[in-house]
Amino acid sequence: MDTIPKRDVILLHGLFGSLSNWSTVIETIGLEYNVYAPELPLFNRSVRRNSLEQLVFYVEKYIKENKIVNPILIGNSLGGHVALLYALKNPNNFEKLVLAGSSGLFENTLSASFVRVKDYDYIKSKVEEVFETKEVITKELVDDVYSTANNPLKALSLIAIARDAKRQNLKDVLHKISRPVLLVWGKQDHVTPPEVAEEFYQHLPNSRLEYIDNCGHVPMMEQPHVFNKFLTQFLSA
């Protein structure tokens, strides 16, 4: 008896990779799907090359090298933006999209806080604004962001990518994505507020929108059980 091959899933993290913790997602779907979690090359020595176009090119190359077929792309924040751009560029080489707090329309980026990089408490307060569920904010998490903010190369790279993301508003082209899209949004998301989710929902013709209460910008980390419930329902539909 032939076994049905596992479907491929790609997880795309946000501008601060440590802010997008996919561990519970991998635990939940890892047995049923081939799950890939590439580390996006956010830090490039040539700041001019830090663009969403380069990140999409990286994903295309990653898919080709790993012989991934018709993937389901799941993206948080900037990762959602990359997933959308990939889908627009490769309309016949993906199955579904899952977007959580995605950029692509509007976002209040954390990289804008880098003007006060030496102030640890200030950076900590900006990280806290990303999450509604404060229990997930560890010292290690804040230290990682503080370290990135104080590394000139990394900080400039992130600022360049964030600026490129703000320039690339996808409102007028989202209607071209006809494949199924799940939007999962925290009701207390201050980075990409709920009205952003509503706008995505209006412009993506085959989309479904689910809100999660007591949740900020990183739902898979803040409310993993609820997020994974919506995710598994969508994947099996």
What's this entry about, in short?
The chain is of the alpha/beta class. 41% of the residues lie in helices and 14% in strands. It contains 9 helices and 6 strands.
What does it look like?
Strands 2-1-3-4-5-6 form a six-stranded parallel sheet, sandwiched between helices. The protein has a single domain, classed as 3-Layer(aba) Sandwich (Rossmann fold). The mean pLDDT is 91. It has helices spanning 23-29, 52-65, 78-89, 120-130, 139-149, 152-167, 194-203, 219-222, 224-236, and strands spanning 7-12, 33-36, 72-76, 96-100, 181-186, 207-212. The protein is globular. Helix 1 packs across helix 9 (224-236) and helix 2 (52-65) crosses helix 3 (78-89). The protein has 237 residues and is of the alpha/beta class. It contains nine helices and six strands; from the N terminus they run βαβαβαβαααβαβαα.
Helical residue percent band: 40-55%
- Regions with pLDDT < 50 over 5+ consecutive residues? none
Cα Rg: 17 Å
SSE run: EHEHEHEHHHEHEHH
Per CATH, the superfamily is Alpha/Beta hydrolase fold, catalytic domain
CATH top level label? Alpha Beta
List how many beta strands DSSP finds: 6
Number of domains: 1
Shape descriptor reads: globular
Number of helices: 9
Query: Structural class of the helix and strand makeup?
Result: alpha/beta
The overall pLDDT, averaged over residues, is 91
CATH topology: Rossmann fold
What does the largest sheet look like? 6 strands, parallel
Strand sequence of the main sheet, in spatial order?
Answer: 2-1-3-4-5-6
| Estimated share of beta-strand residues | 5-15%
CATH architecture: 3-Layer(aba) Sandwich
Q: Give the end-to-end Cα distance, rounded to a whole number of Å.
A: 24 Å
